[in-house]
């Protein structure tokens, strides 16, 4: 499915973009970080399944290749446009009603902290139709339930085409529960981010 006027219009009205993924997603999210303009006019939250000591590597690689300001989420951070946030390991990243982040230490979801579902569900409650979420490659079902919450609340929901995902289970799980409004190849997702 190619880009159409509806997806472009809804993307432009978004105030928050949440990117979720696990195994096989890093290179696609890295490529997204490279194409974001400095004045994206949105906040971007990246929720990746990863090990605790992986942040410095991600931070350095993303910072060297992003035109946006980048930071790891801290508890009570205000969500600011034109800023790229990375969800920290060993916490769930919450989005709170006053457009700030919260960090939660409750149990792992789908064996993961941060959980993509948790962040997507919070974004659905707070940002509703002003949110775009993209779910990339991964080896479990984390993200599907949260993406459905976003779609039900008017958010723009996109999954990477499972045919090009290194680990297709994550996007396939979202498609099975009808959470994906658009199924796009990575090239089309990156083109959307440039519009």
TrEMBL record:
SUPFAM superfamilies: Methylesterase CheB, C-terminal domain (SSF52738)
The CheB-type methylesterase domain, residue ranges: 10-189
Family annotation (Pfam families): CheB_methylest
Substrates-to-products reaction catalysed: [protein]-L-glutamate 5-O-methyl ester + H2O = L-glutamyl-[protein] + methanol + H(+)
Keyword check for Ribosomal protein: no
Gene3D superfamilies for this protein: Methylesterase CheB, C-terminal domain (3.40.50.180)
Entry-linked InterPro entries: CheB_C, Sig_transdc_resp-reg_Me-estase
EC number per UniProt: 3.1.1.61
Superkingdom of the source species: Bacteria
First-level EC class: hydrolase
Annotated active site: 22, 49, 142
Presence of the UniProt keyword DNA damage in the record: no
Record keywords: Chemotaxis, Hydrolase
The protein, known as: protein-glutamate methylesterase
Organism the protein comes from: Mucilaginibacter calamicampi
């Amino acid at each position: 499915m190619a880009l159409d006027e509806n997806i472009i219009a809804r993307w432009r009205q978004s105030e928050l973009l949440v990117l979720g993924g696990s195994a096989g997603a890093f290179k696609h999210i890295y490529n997204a970080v490279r194409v974001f303009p400095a004045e994206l006019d949105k906040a971007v939250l990246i929720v990746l399944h990863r090990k605790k000591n992986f942040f410095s590597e991600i931070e350095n690689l993303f910072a060297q290749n992003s035109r946006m300001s980048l930071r790891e989420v801290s508890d009570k951070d205000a969500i600011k446009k034109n800023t790229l946030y990375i969800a920290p390991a060993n916490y769930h990243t919450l989005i709170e009603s006053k457009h700030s982040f919260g960090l939660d230490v409750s149990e792992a979801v789908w064996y993961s902290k941060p959980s993509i579902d948790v962040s997507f569900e919070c974004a659905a409650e707070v940002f509703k139709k002003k949110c775009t979420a993209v779910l990339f490659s991964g080896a479990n079902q984390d993200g599907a339930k949260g993406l459905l919450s976003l779609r039900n609340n008017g958010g723009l929901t996109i999954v990477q085409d499972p045919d090009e995902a290194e680990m297709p289970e994550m996007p396939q799980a979202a498609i099975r529960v009808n959470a994906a409004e658009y199924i796009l190849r990575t090239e089309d997702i990156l083109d959307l981010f440039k519009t």
